[in-house]
């Protein structure tokens, strides 16, 4: 994982207004991203909080857990969340692509979906197609490189969470 | 055959350009090997013992003459004059230099071919019955749905970093020649009571360290819903498949640990969610568009019998032997399906030289309505040859060592590359295939033995399908020396079964003797009309074991 | 992977594959040679580890893939690799004597 990252959201490099807050630290009034566990246990109190809230879905850092956290557990809390971050502990662990599509297509989440962890060049376009809108990537990578990566493969056969319909349908004007 | 439209062309050429950039960045030192390795693997480039290996996809095993000629050209220009046809209907080149692979891929793209997803933890090249479109009693040509699956799975954004690789096979015929029950997903094309065509879906088969026969999860998925159903299976796997241990990461382990009924429930639940948007409903117009490419070619109307063919058989015993093993009945009167054995006695299973590939391309163009097929048993097929022409085709094949009359016989064994090439191997596979075929070279003996499939892998990964060999041979390593474990009774067809291990492993010099003992035991025990597999299923392991470990 | 090296072995050498063409190479003096006969041989465990350290690239300028130690043994006509695998890497496929290093050997 890169030691220093910057954030690309909706096609621009931006200052990250969000802070990841560890479970044992108090929540302030700044936009905060907390764990799924904390969200579940403190949900009632959090509903009356006055700042924006986000959650991070994790597998463990080695990518060795049998499963990651279940994205569908977020259903009762979606209206409270402005951002959902999904952790890719290693780029090879592609579970987060399914999480993202479920959030977008099944659960209708329309806030920021952020990819964190090992978020590399050759995964960006797939992530974007699955509904990610923000990417924490190596701070040395310029925006131009990021944009090139997204446009390397110009066509897609299948629909996903972006607005490309998929060649199998487009051929027939669908 | 399917032809690319502008979309297909763009997708493949974009990919070649992308890979060229990646190779350049690696060679210039801008990216590390750690970062590059998964990229090259996704483009079919492995590092083997002596050099790189490139695996080129031959979707559902179908090639035109032009595409076959390109393989000959690539073998000559980028490799050392040969290619290796594999059990997954692909072709592998064993010596290309990394810095020339982008050029090679450009040339491949010019004939509508690629190496996309021939490796890596993604949905791999789809395989299908090699007699597709040519065999009688087929419900539907399996290449239609295979091509749709190929397109749907290409660069699938959700399923390119699965827990492990994922292989799909399709058959449209009750006799399974595509080993569908040994795939992550096996599809059987079926017809329901209303006469509609649909797809039976089997999930969780596989070989490797822990072999499993797939479980049937759905009896009938209509064409329109197949992609949604497949996405449901893939999503359940991507969410729940194990990532903690690569040996337990295939979907077969998930199915096994979850149980068939629960797995079916999970898939159906996921399916109903995915299907609710109707987004993946396959447009009928697209199904028809693709089906049109696989419409029957222009067969001539011919009498069922060819006089010249019958005469040639009577006058030439060798030809008539070859016809018996290598020619299969075609659905169209006056035509036959010609099998080209890539198993010359003492040769390397699956290898073909550039010159041989050129010859086969010419034959396909002149006599076989421009098609060649690759079989998962590492042979080739000319699917539509007029019986009137069969003798001529045979003569030309004979001149190029391509007319060995041994399809399905003991010398037609499958072997993976093994320790002669492969980085993961424990032991060599090819020399065993060569020794066995030389030992049983006598044709009369081979005919007497009858159908007997030997399958050899150089390690537990089972690329040589040893679990499903009537006789399976597996290379194991003991302190740097090669040993071989033998199993009996495996089968990859519609009555798929996994072989049973005979007992202690054999040293290399004892393997041929052991196979000989097994064969002699069978010949002693068989009843009239019984194939090896039938006898084994009737009498079991004991008599074989007694003979094998007698002293 | 069937690689047999280190513990208990007296003589060892370091091998790898070259990035641009995958060729099997052996470490020698601060560089790499194609012919096993020229490989630098380490005598004893400590020497072997020192050899591997010298051979292991720690930056991208070195285009050699995954160097590792393997056991060799001494005979009358010099050293030979001990395992079947390393013999095949040093020579070429046993089923195609016309290919690999053995094809150009004198
Ligand atoms: C030389 C490079 C090769 C490497 C590194 C390689 C690697 C592997 C590995 C690691 C597996 C086990 C996968 C698992 O169980 O999860 C496997 C299985 C398999 N490979 Fe290969 N293989 C190679 C060549 C081949 C060739 C030449 C063929 C075809 C002749 C082939 C066809 C297969 C098949 C059919 C399976 C087993 C079926 C399955 O479980 O999916 N492979 N290979
Ligand atoms: S079975 Fe083993 S030795 Fe044979 S090709 Fe596969 S990985 Fe290599």
Automatic annotation (TrEMBL), chain A:
<dbReference type="Pfam" id="PF06073">
    <property type="entry name" value="DUF934"/>
</dbReference>
<dbReference type="InterPro" id="IPR008318">
    <property type="entry name" value="UCP030820"/>
</dbReference>
<protein>
    <recommendedName>
        <fullName>Oxidoreductase probably involved in sulfite reduction</fullName>
    </recommendedName>
</protein>
UniProtKB/TrEMBL annotation, chain B:
<dbReference type="GO" id="GO:0009337">
    <property type="term" value="C:sulfite reductase complex (NADPH)"/>
</dbReference>
<keyword id="KW-0560">Oxidoreductase</keyword>
<dbReference type="GO" id="GO:0016002">
    <property type="term" value="F:sulfite reductase activity"/>
</dbReference>
<feature type="domain" description="Nitrite/sulphite reductase 4Fe-4S">
    <location>
        <begin position="119"/>
        <end position="273"/>
    </location>
</feature>
<dbReference type="Pfam" id="PF03460">
    <property type="entry name" value="NIR_SIR_ferr"/>
</dbReference>
<dbReference type="GO" id="GO:0050311">
    <property type="term" value="F:sulfite reductase (ferredoxin) activity"/>
</dbReference>
<dbReference type="GO" id="GO:0051539">
    <property type="term" value="F:4 iron, 4 sulfur cluster binding"/>
</dbReference>
<keyword id="KW-0004">4Fe-4S</keyword>
<dbReference type="GO" id="GO:0000103">
    <property type="term" value="P:sulfate assimilation"/>
</dbReference>
<keyword id="KW-0408">Iron</keyword>
<dbReference type="InterPro" id="IPR045169">
    <property type="entry name" value="NO2/SO3_Rdtase_4Fe4S_prot"/>
</dbReference>
<dbReference type="InterPro" id="IPR005117">
    <property type="entry name" value="NiRdtase/SiRdtase_haem-b_fer"/>
</dbReference>
<dbReference type="GO" id="GO:0046872">
    <property type="term" value="F:metal ion binding"/>
</dbReference>
<feature type="domain" description="Nitrite/Sulfite reductase ferredoxin-like">
    <location>
        <begin position="348"/>
        <end position="397"/>
    </location>
</feature>
<dbReference type="InterPro" id="IPR036136">
    <property type="entry name" value="Nit/Sulf_reduc_fer-like_dom_sf"/>
</dbReference>
From TrEMBL, chain C:
<dbReference type="Pfam" id="PF11011">
    <property type="entry name" value="DUF2849"/>
</dbReference>
<protein>
    <recommendedName>
        <fullName>DUF2849 domain-containing protein</fullName>
    </recommendedName>
</protein>
<dbReference type="InterPro" id="IPR021270">
    <property type="entry name" value="DUF2849"/>
</dbReference>
């Amino acid at each position: 994982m890169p030691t220093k990252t910057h954030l690309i959201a909706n096609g621009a490099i931006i200052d990250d207004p969000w802070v990841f807050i560890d479970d044992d630290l108090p929540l302030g009034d700044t936009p905060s991203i907390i764990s799924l566990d904390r969200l579940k246990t403190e949900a009632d109190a959090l509903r009356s909080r006055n700042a924006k809230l986000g959650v991070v879905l994790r597998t463990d850092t080695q990518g060795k857990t049998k499963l990651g956290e279940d994205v569908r557990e977020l259903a009762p809390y979606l209206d409270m969340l402005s951002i959902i971050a999904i952790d890719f502990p290693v780029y090879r662990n592609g579970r987060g692509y399914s999480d993202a599509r479920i959030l977008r297509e099944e659960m209708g989440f329309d806030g920021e979906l952020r990819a964190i962890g090992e978020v590399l060049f050759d995964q960006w376009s797939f992530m974007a197609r699955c509904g990610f809108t923000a990417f924490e990537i190596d701070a040395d990578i310029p925006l131009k490189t990021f944009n090139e990566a997204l446009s390397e493969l110009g066509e897609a056969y299948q629909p996903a969470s972006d607005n490309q319909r998929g060649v199998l349908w487009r051929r027939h004007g669908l | 055959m399917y032809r690319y439209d502008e979309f297909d062309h763009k997708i493949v050429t974009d990919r070649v350009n992308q890979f060229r950039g990646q190779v350049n960045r690696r060679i210039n030192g801008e990216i590390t090997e750690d970062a590059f390795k998964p990229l090259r693997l996704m483009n079919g480039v492995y590092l083997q013992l002596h050099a790189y290996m490139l695996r080129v996809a031959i979707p559902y095993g179908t090639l035109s003459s032009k595409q076959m000629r390109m393989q000959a050209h690539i073998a000559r220009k980028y490799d050392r004059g040969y290619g290796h046809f594999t059990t997954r209907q692909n072709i592998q080149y064993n010596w290309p230099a990394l810095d020339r692979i982008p050029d090679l891929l450009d040339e491949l793209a010019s004939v509508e071919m690629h190496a996309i997803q021939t490796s890596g933890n993604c949905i791999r090249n789809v395989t299908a019955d090699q007699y597709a479109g040519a065999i009688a009693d087929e419900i539907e040509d399996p290449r239609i749905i295979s091509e749709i699956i190929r397109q749907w799975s290409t660069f699938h954004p959700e399923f390119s970093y699965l827990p492990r690789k994922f292989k799909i096979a399709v058959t449209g015929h009750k006799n399974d020649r595509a080993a569908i029950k040994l795939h992550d997903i096996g599809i059987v094309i079926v017809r329901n009571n209303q006469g509609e065509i649909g797809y039976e879906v089997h999930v969780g088969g596989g070989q490797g360290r822990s072999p499993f026969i797939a479980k049937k999860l759905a009896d009938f998925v209509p064409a329109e819903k197949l992609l949604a159903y497949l996405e449901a299976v893939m999503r359940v796997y991507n969410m729940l498949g194990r990532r903690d241990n690569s040996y337990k990461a295939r979907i077969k382990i998930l199915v096994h640990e979850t149980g068939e009924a629960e797995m079916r429930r999970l898939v159906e639940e996921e399916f109903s969610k995915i299907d609710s948007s109707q987004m993946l409903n396959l447009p009928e117009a697209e199904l028809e568009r693709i089906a049109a490419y696989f419409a029957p070619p222009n067969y001539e109307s011919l009498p069922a019998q060819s006089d010249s063919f019958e005469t040639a058989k009577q006058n030439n015993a060798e030809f008539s032997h070859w016809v018996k093993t290598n020619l299969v009945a075609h659905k169209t009167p006056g035509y036959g399906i010609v099998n080209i054995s890539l198993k010359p006695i003492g040769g390397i299973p699956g290898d073909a030289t550039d010159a041989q590939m050129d010859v086969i391309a010419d034959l396909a163009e002149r006599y076989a309505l421009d098609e060649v097929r690759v079989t998962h048993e590492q042979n080739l097929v000319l699917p539509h040859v007029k019986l009137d022409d069969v003798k001529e085709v045979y003569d030309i094949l004979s001149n190029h060592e391509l007319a060995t009359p041994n399809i399905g016989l003991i010398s037609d064994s499958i072997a993976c590359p093994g320790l002669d090439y492969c980085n993961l191997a424990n032991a060599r596979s090819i020399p065993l295939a060569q020794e066995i075929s030389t030992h049983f070279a006598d044709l009369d003996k081979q005919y007497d033995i009858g159908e007997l499939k030997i399958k050899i892998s150089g390690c537990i990964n089972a690329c040589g399908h040893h679990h499903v060999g009537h006789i399976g041979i597996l290379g194991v390593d003991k302190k740097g020396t090669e040993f071989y474990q033998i199993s009996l009774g495996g089968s990859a067809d519609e009555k798929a079964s996994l072989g049973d291990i005979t007992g202690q492993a054999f040293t290399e010099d004892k393997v041929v003797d052991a196979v000989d003992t097994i064969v002699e035991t069978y010949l002693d025990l068989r009843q009239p009309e019984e194939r090896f597999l039938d006898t084994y299923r009737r009498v079991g392991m004991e008599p074989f074991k007694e003979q094998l470990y007698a002293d | 992977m069937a690689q047999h090296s280190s513990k208990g072995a007296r003589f060892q050498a370091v091998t790898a594959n070259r990035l641009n063409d995958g060729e099997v190479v052996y470490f020698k003096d601060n560089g790499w040679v194609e012919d096993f006969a020229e490989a630098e041989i380490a005598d004893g465990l400590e020497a072997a580890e020192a050899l591997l350290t010298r051979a292991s690239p720690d930056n991208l300028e070195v285009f050699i893939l995954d160097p590792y130690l393997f056991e060799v043994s001494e005979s009358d006509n010099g050293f030979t690799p001990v395992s079947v695998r390393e013999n095949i890497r040093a020579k070429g496929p046993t089923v195609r004597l016309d290919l690999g290093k053995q094809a150009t050997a004198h």
